[in-house]
Write a structure and sequence with these properties.
498 residues; alpha/beta; Rossmann fold; UDP-N-acetylmuramoyl-L-alanine:D-glutamate ligase; 11-stranded mixed β-sheet; 7-stranded parallel β-sheet; 18 strands
């Protein structure tokens, strides 16, 4: 974003004009929410251009009749910011001589520091802001990003940051604002458009991470098998899941696969799950039982010899298998399978225990999707720093030659070529037991549909499928448990297919 601003300035955009654009846009956003400032407002002004933005906001609110004052806890360092301050004083805006009372019901607009924060912030100011948040939880707005946050990785540069009600980020979404580490501080995230020329956006370096949100679902071109295709030509899925210890995981993974609209779903399951399959999932073709180790985990080392893998477009291995160091299925049969292989949960844990670990993936002859949560990711990629999930997902995908869906509040989806997506909307309802099993089955089914629709498999299908799963968790009205969203996912996919 800093480079974009420099490019705009080099093309002739005056710094003053950009500051005006930012300040007027944010003041308009505030004025459209009258309940925020009905008792007045205070702008906290920083020493640089972020403070200048705040002074333009204060001026516009004052001219609109809002009871506004400013507080400058730092010496102003930028000439343009000083000019806006001088003008604010001339037109009658009140400058507070001491720190404001956090227990008042005034709206606070924090415009202290913008991009590039790296120095520790005064604990006195952070404490003051957090007292304000505690006193008036809906009356604290941050301009661009909350002070104390690194805009690139979302980590705090001090001991802590403060919890904003809303963050109005300028220009582009800063990657740090959609990392899990920043969730508690950012509040509601909104983007302030500053009119970045298309020419500049087109000239950005390739492989920029893309923030995706629920509205993007309507623009995605979902795979559509031909209307004349039979059930075996609409995506054939094989699921290897479940154990005596974790029976439910297999059911949920199967339901996720069915929800995808794949034409046929087959399964290897533990006998206790298989015996009741006819009454719970009559659509599933049972192709064999999984043996059980003494610890209750499933043995799937020999089952791949029992079927012709070429009969399937995608294979899911992992949900609920349990972790075992005895035997594994990571041999030449899976390496030579040319369809989509999805490794989830305990398949990832088991792969991490093998001699080759993630290096086994490099020699796969077909596409592979990995769907770990953060702890599973750490086991498989122990050398990767996971403090920034966005960078970790990108590094892992390039390293192992597989697409990676790193599940977190803001899930990251990366492919080996460096294409990356991050889900920008958070819904805590998907952070519940069973949702990952449903997701694994769902993306496996969607991958099978993708392969039979155009015989190619782009990672953007994995990203879109993960986004739809998150959307289902956020808006399913039947309930918040994992089994409920399967029906909703089925309805969403059916709607996309008509």
């Amino acid at each position: 974003m800093q480079n974009i601003e420099k490019e705009m300035f080099s093309m002739g955009m005056p710094v003053e004009a950009l500051m005006e654009k930012v300040g007027i846009s944010i003041s308009s956003w505030i004025l459209n929410r009258q309940g925020l400032f009905e008792n007045g407002a205070i702008v906290l002004v920083g020493p640089g251009h972020n403070g200048g933005d705040g002074l333009v906001i204060a001026r516009e609110l004052y001219l609109a009749g809002v009871d506004i004052s400013i507080w400058c806890p730092f010496l102003l360092k930028k000439e343009l910011t000083q000019k806006h301050f001088d003008y604010a004083m001339q037109i009658g805006i009140k400058n507070l001589g001491r720190k404001p009372n956090p227990n008042s019901d005034l709206l606070w607009i924090e415009a202290l520091f913008g991009l590039g924060q790296s120095k520790s912030i005064s604990e006195e100011i952070l404490d003051l802001l957090n007292l304000k948040k505690k006193s008036s939880p809906d009356k604290l707005i941050s301009v661009d990003l909350p002070i104390g946050l690194n805009s690139d990785n979302g980590n705090v540069v001090s001991k802590t940051s403060y919890k904003a009600t809303s963050t109005l980020t300028i220009g582009l979404f800063k990657s740090g604002l959609i990392q899990d580490s920043a969730i508690d501080f950012v509040g509601d995230l909104e983007r302030v458009d500053i009119g970045i020329p298309k020419k500049i956006l087109d000239d950005l370096p390739g492989k920029q991470p893309l923030r995706i949100s629920f509205s993007d679902l309507a623009t995605f071109d979902w795979p559509q098998p031909g209307k004349n295709k039979n059930k075996y030509q609409r995506g054939r899925v094989l699921v290897i899941a479940g154990s005596e210890k974790y029976r439910g995981a297999a059911y949920l993974a199967l339901r996720g696969a069915l929800a995808s609209g794949a034409g046929s779903v087959s399964a290897f399951l533990p006998q206790s799950v298989a015996s009741s399959l006819w009454s719970t999932h009559p659509e599933i073709l049972l192709v064999g039982d999984l043996n059980t180790f003494p610890d209750g985990s499933s043995d799937c080392s020999g089952v791949l010899n029992e079927v012709d893998l070429n009969k399937y477009d995608s294979i899911l291995i992992g949900p609920g298998l349990g972790v075992s160091k005895k035997n594994d299925c990571f041999g030449t049969l899976l390496q030579n399978f040319k369809g989509l292989l999805v490794l989830d949960a305990d398949a990832i844990n088991r792969l991490s225990l093998t001699v080759k670990g993630w290096e086994w993936l490099i020699n796969r002859n077909g596409p592979t999707w990995l769907t770990p949560h953060i702890e599973e990711f750490k086991r498989l990629f122990p050398s990767i720093n996971c403090s920034n999930p966005l960078k970790a997902g990108i590094e892992a995908a390039k390293l192992c030659g597989s697409s990676v869906l790193l599940k977190c509040a803001h899930s990251v989806i990366s492919d080996p070529k460096g294409e990356t997506w991050q889900i920008g909307q958070v819904n805590s309802s998907v952070a519940r037991i069973g949702f990952g099993d449903v997701l694994a089955g769902f993306v496996t089914g969607m991958g099978a549909r993708g392969l039979v629709s155009d015989e190619r498999l782009d990672t953007n299908l994995l990203a879109a499928s993960a986004l739809m799963h998150a959307y289902a968790g956020a808006f399913c009205l039947r309930g918040s448990e994992a089994s409920s969203i399967c029906i909703f996912l089925s309805e969403l996919i059916k709607k996309e297919s008509t």
